[in-house]
Amino acid sequence: MAKHEHGSMDTEVQEKTFDGFMS
């Protein structure tokens, strides 16, 4: 999982993207 230096906004997008990827 690649971590980008953006902020809480990126974390929110990552969680949704990762969740959809795992589904």
Task: Give the SSE layout.
Layout: H1 8-22
The number of E-state strands comes to 0
Radius of gyration: 9 Å
The string of secondary-structure elements, in order, is H
Number of helices: 1
Give the biggest sheet.
none
Could you say which overall geometry the principal axes of the C-alpha atoms support? elongated
Q: Roughly what percent helix?
A: 55-70%
Q: What is the terminal-to-terminal distance?
A: 16 Å
Strand content: under 5%
Mean pLDDT: 67
Stretches with pLDDT under 50, minimum 5 residues: none
> Given the helix and strand composition, which structural class is it?
mainly alpha
Give a short synopsis of this structure.
This protein is an all-alpha fold.
Q: Overview of this structure, please?
A:
With 23 residues, this protein is mainly α. It starts with 7 loop residues before the first helix and ends with a helix. The protein contains 1 helix and no strands. The radius of gyration is 9 Å and the shape is elongated. The mean pLDDT is 67.
